[in-house]
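Sharing a chain and its predicted structure for anyone who wants a worked example. Both blocks are below, sequence first, tokens second.
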Amino acid sequence: MTLAAIVSACESTAFHAYFSLISPALRDAARGPLRRARHNGRPCSGVDRTRWCDECEQVIADHLLDGYGRLRKTLAGVPPRTRTGETVREMESAVRWLTSSDAAGERLDLVARQLRGWPSEEESCGVRAARAQLVYHPLRSLEARVRRADAMSRGASAKPERDLRTSDWAKPLRVDGVAFELLEDAVIRLRNGGVDLYDVPRGLLERLRLDLPAARRMLRDSLERLRALRPGFYAANVAGYLGEEALFPGGASLQGPEELFILGEEKEAARRTLGKLLTGGQVTARPVRARYLELTARLSADVPPDGTGLIAWITNEFGITITAAERFLQRLIHLVTLADLDWVAEQCSTVASTATEPEKA
């Protein structure tokens, strides 16, 4: 098939040619943003692992259809226009290239391979214009758009930071400017793929003139106020990002999120679950119980541990994959936060003080 097939009067032929030309380059360009926005940086794969997940495949399909529509309109004499009303010159340049006499002699697969590469001085202006308008332009702000769409599909806010800054219900949260900045930063980090609420950026700490323990305490208090003030917002925009799966190594089973999110019962439910983990209600082997105790104590300490180091420690101690360790840590952080850090630290101290006593037969 030649490049000229894209401008064929037959829609099926034209779209097949357009798909063959643009799809490989579009996937290359979208892979990184989709991984970051939807899969925490991990590779995307569907059920049979021969294709992407349905949601990411749909994103590519939507962009292909949109780009094809823009191209066909330009061919029909209705090119896209800028905000000032001027025609997009790159799209017109791409159309001139596709309708030129040379297009009938160019192999579609070779041009598609060229589009996947970086711009070079040897390529024609038509190739560069097509890459810019049919590959990169449709994907502008893709990561942010996908994160926002996924969040809204789960009932979260399109722009939680805007709600926090402007909503009347959030006025009490804005009284303390420093505490509010910490809260806003935490919510934004969760939306952008963060897994640790208390991993406050060093730059923010320096600007606010806080040390990490103090910032952590202020953030914890702000989160408690947010949950009490607007439980629905908290559940959708904070708790919902901290893991909805009870994935614990060693066969430990945690209570489901639906129980944790019931108003007035979150704290008690989290404390019951952590109590069982620490005292052996769900894990009977003493070595495994000791690992839970050590990990929980580190999470409730005044100085928060290094997240990367914790992932490596969990992977080694529990013999699970990095992905499972990340989910495990997310869930445990969620429970520790709900149960109250001071309470958890006290429980860890109490359990540790009796750990040397012999187990009853």
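Comments welcome. The chain has 17 helices and no strands.
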